[in-house]
Amino acid sequence: QVQLVESGGGLAQPGGSLRLSCAASGFTFSDVGMYWVRQSPEKGLEWVSAITHSGEGTYYTDSVKGRFTISRDNAKNTLYLQMNNLKFEDTAVYFCVKGFRIRRIVDDDSRGQGIQVTVSS
Question: Residue 36 forms beta bridges with which residues?
Fold first, then answer.
């Protein structure tokens, strides 16, 4: 079955960086686009970024453009989210999601268990 396991979250200071990873299994990773969403009490569930199956196409919500970079290594079945210049408002639980969606979230898409990112001074 589909399994998505996020790692790399934690505590960062404003302006700092974190890199999230998502290890995928149970499906042919290289055939599938992926995306990241995040959830916070203030904003609810928010689409963050997406990447095509090949990695050639990447998409971002406006609030993270220029700061976050989505990428993937199909040989390692792993999705990444490099987060730079972190802001307080980036604090959320981040989920990787199987599927290719741009600026929308589909509840039926398989999702990891999520990982906490906290930006605090």
Answer: 49, 96
Q: Are 116 and 110 in contact (CB under 8 A)?
A: no
24: β partners: 4
pLDDT tens column, 56-98: 999 999 999 999 999 999 999 999 999 999 999 999 999 999 9
Measured CA angle at 64 (ends 49, 53), to 5 deg:
20
Which two tokens mark 69? 């970079």
Confidence of residue 116 (pLDDT cuts 50, 70, 90): very high
- Average pLDDT of the chain is 97
Q: Distance (Å, rounded) from C-alpha 71 to C-alpha 57?
A: 10
Closest CA to 54 of 85, 29, 19: 29
Taking alpha carbons only, the member of 100, 102, 4 closest to residue 61 is 102
Specify the DSSP element, H or E, that contains 92. Answer: strand 92-98
Q: How far is CA 111 from CA 30, 31, 37, in A?
A: 17, 17, 9
